[in-house]
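Before drawing any conclusions, I looked closely at one protein, both as residues and as discrete backbone shape codes, quoted below without any editing:
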Amino acid sequence: MPDQPTSNIILPHRRLKLDTLVRLRWLAVGGQSAALLVVHVGLGYPMPAGLAFAMVALSAWLNIFLKIRWPSAMRLSERAAMLQLAYDILQMSGLLFLTGGLGNPFAFLLMAPVMVSATGLSARYTFILGILATICASLLAVFHLPLPWPVGSDFSLPVVYSVGIWIALVSTLGFMAIYAFRVAEEARQLADALAATELVLAREQHLNALDGLATAAAHELGTPLATIYLAAKELADEFEADDPRAEDLDLIHSQAERCRGILRQLTSLSSETDRTYQRMPVSQLLEDVIDPHRGTGVAIHSDWTGTGPEPVGTRNAAIRYGLGNLVENAVDFAASRVDVTANWDAGALSISIKDDGPGFSVDILGKIGDPYVSVRGKSLQRDTGGGLGLGIFIAKTLLERTGAKLSLENVAPPETGAHIRVSWPRSVYEQDGGVDETPFSAHNGKEPQNVHTSPDASSGAQVET
């Protein structure tokens, strides 16, 4: 299983359900029928009622056919959904042609199918439907039957006013379509990113579950292995010293003893009393995070120092993966060097990651951490071709769930590079939790005080690769 399973996860647009479009079309059929009845029967205005009701009936028959032909829960392809919405635009345009064109106050309903497309389909199909609606509106501004009006009087709009309605309709169509698409797209991106985060946590939880399986295996295999060990020992007493079979029994006896030792080790690793396995100091955490990125052509320097005893926290998959993702990003964009340092005092722990690359683009520095924000200056040494998109969002989400606070900035001139600092209140980092847990914990919102390396620091290390 790859170490970075979500670096390129981009989920497709959610497909519209057939039942959603059918229900919306039934709503349109009901509204159109009511409007035609009020105008033709209630007000008594003359109009081609037969053709108008025939077009409404066509939509009703289409709904009936779709309900019979396909199940309501079926997810439509984008092309199929676009074709249905295109029919709705054409059907509405036909009704407007029979009832006054853009002079009809219901002309703005031409936007409805485009809005549905903007919230559920890709930009390509939304653009196609927008062009279709614009073409229909343009034709209706010129070609249409008279607006239904009392007998003996004709209603006609001035040309300038008709042009104004067309401009207003097209402008509103473009604005609303873009707005609805952007809102829906951001919601989709956030949902996709959260889904990717859940995949990361599920992977780590799966690895953690292997520990429980090892315990169960050790328990189940203990009894038959003890029987083999005892039987081999008793059989060894029945053979003479020079019997050739005694050597085989000694081999069985030794291998059974070896298996018992392995099972004891598995049991001890899974034991709640084994604090060595369940907890790790900050220095070991840094080595675990840095080690996969050695040998990439970038020198990685690590240093840990502080006042007081070294912080020791629970092995936490969210912390390891989040920090690893940040280090990987620094290595990708660094020119030649990445510095990973840990500083602590009695109240806080801070881990700093610096690189000598181009740093963050100024125009997106305030947006870093949002899903799919992936703009960063290109390295002068090599073209990385990506970075700071979904991965940085996942890392930020995972680390903040453990109580950490992230700050991202560029290194002060004349030097170049990015600087990421992850800080925890020491009490939060050292709290006793289960192995690889990712608890929700709110950060107190206070920045830890700067910790400077001093000659009397309790611990310190310098590693260069």
Notes: The chain has twelve helices and eight strands. Strands lie at 279-281, 299-306, 312-314, 337-344, 348-355, 405-410, 418-425, 459-464. The CA atoms of residues 196 and 400 lie 16 Å apart.
